[in-house]
Amino acid sequence: MRNNIEDIYNNISIDQYKTDIGFRTLVEGVNDYLYIIPEYQRKYKWKWEQVQELAVSLIRGLPIPPIYVWRNTMTGDLEIIDGQQRVISLFLYYVGKYFRNEKKSCFDYRLIDIKEFDNFELALSNTFPLKNKAFEMKHNGEKYDISYSSLPAKLRKKVDYTTISIIEIKVNSDDGVEDAIHRIFANLNAGGTKLETQEIRNGIFAGKFYNMLKDINANNIRWRKLYGKQIDNKEKDMECLLKLCAYKYYCKFENGKFNIENYSGKMRKFLDEFSAISMEFDEQKVKEYRTSIENFIDKFEFDRKIESLIVFEGIFVVMDKTSVCKKISFETYNTIKNRVLDTLDKRTAQRDNMIRRWGEIYEFLSKND
User: Fold this and answer.
1) Any idea where the GmrSD restriction endonucleases N-terminal domain is (predicted)?
2) What percentage of the chain reaches a pLDDT higher than 90?
3) Which conformational region is residue 81 in: left (phi greater than 0), alpha (psi within -120 to 50 degrees), or beta?
4) Cβ-contact 308, 337 below 8 angstroms
């Protein structure tokens, strides 16, 4: 029986509780792990100029947007679901530090091992080296040092007690608390700095399968050499690995021809739908996909950065769906890329282009297998 809208509404209860806390209480809470950044959060991306601008706003008494949190009933932790860029920036101001390599200030929270260190500052600096940094503010053409440690006692006390709103969200839902939290995360992040499509997926579809992809993306040495050592700020590396898995699930090879199910020509919709399915995968299924990806990556015999992920993905489809199994040298990769150049225009994701590309790759590899 179909539920009416009133039944659906009654089965979902989302309450918000607002608490105002002082700046110092917040940042010390971050350092003591009272506030946790969960695995589905996007990377920290703020540049030095943005961090300093937030510090200036704090000094001038301008309002800081609220921080949204959710208390994980399993761990007791307060998980930050919106505002983590501001929270980490305020923390960096408090400790008077920034990243040693300012051009590579983006960092992935998943790489920080908080279990091995007594506080967040030590855990962060162990993975992403920090340096002392002075904060400045301009006023009437003059520069003033506003570093927290340099503030006059009276002003520092004022800053310490500057209130920042913490809004705790409590959810009761028949659809599952975690699913509701992930969707709230996506909604809260719809404004402001725009999230990349894969960043939103990372939030909504967090789970065993996505954890596996994240682990390969961060720790598979050959993959990092093929894609590029620096983890992609826009999550295109994660999206590429996700595509391989979606192709494994939906692609077929029958009577010498390739086909792809459930594909309307819109890659975003295709990957979203597969991601939803992947949340139901058990441990064995996740392991199967991990093995497929890692075995495929190991087929590449060179350590250079690949120029075309589209070709890389096409080679995966051919090897996963046919009997072709061979090592890929840099020369072989380039030969394949040159053979399919006419399918690498702006319509690379068009169904006919994809199927034709896979066919040409198969024809070449099977003849040279």
Assistant:
1) 28-205
2) 48
3) alpha
4) yes
How far the first Cα of the chain sits from its last, in Å, is 56
Confidence of residue 174 (pLDDT cuts 50, 70, 90): very low
Taking CB atoms within 8 Å and a gap of at least 24, the contacts of 267-275 are: 267/243, 267/349, 268/197, 270/246, 271/201, 271/239, 271/242, 271/243, 271/246, 272/201, 274/242, 274/245, 274/246, 274/249, 274/250, 275/201, 275/204, 275/205, 275/210, 275/242
Condensed to tens digits (0 to 9), the pLDDT of residues 299-317 reads: 999 989 998 899 999 999 9
pLDDT of residue 30: 92
| pLDDT single digits (tens) 99-143 | 988 776 677 777 788 888 999 999 999 888 899 999 999 888 899
Helices marked H in the chain: 5-10, 23-31, 48-59, 84-95, 120-127, 153-160, 177-188, 197-204, 208-219, 221-227, 236-250, 267-278, 283-297, 309-321, 330-339, 351-367
DSSP class of residue 209 equals H
The torsion of the CA quartet 120, 125, 127, 129, rounded to 10 degrees, works out to: 160
pLDDT computed for residue 7 by the predictor? 44
- Residue indicated by tokens 């309002």: 63
pLDDT of residue 329 exceeding 90: yes
